[in-house]
Design a protein that fits this description.
The chain has 74 residues and is an alpha+beta fold. The chain has one domain: Arc Repressor Mutant, subunit A (Orthogonal Bundle). 61% of the residues lie in helices and 19% in strands. Helix 1 crosses helix 4 and helix 2 packs across helix 3.
């Protein structure tokens, strides 16, 4: 759901905001985001002390498919 939240929110999202949106702890969200970075689904961009999170092209496609699946289940 983090990928879907990133897709809905557009660019320059932060870990703490995403954690609140998907209702999980910040540390859990960071762990998941680190795994997604390894899989090249998200990219971190450091701006001073703040790391923003952006979807890669692959992440964008995966998030789109997850959104479609979610819509089918509702």
């Amino acid at each position: 759901m983090i990928l879907v939240a990133l897709k809905k929110g557009g660019r320059n999202r932060y870990g703490s905001i995403l954690a609140k949106e998907v209702d999980c702890t910040y540390s859990h969200a960071v762990k998941i985001l680190q795994e997604m970075e390894k899989a090249k689904l998200v990219a971190f961009e450091k701006q001073g002390r703040i790391k923003s999170i952006n979807l890669t092209d692959s992440g964008e496609r995966v998030a789109e498919h997850i959104s479609k699946i979610k819509d089918l289940l509702v």
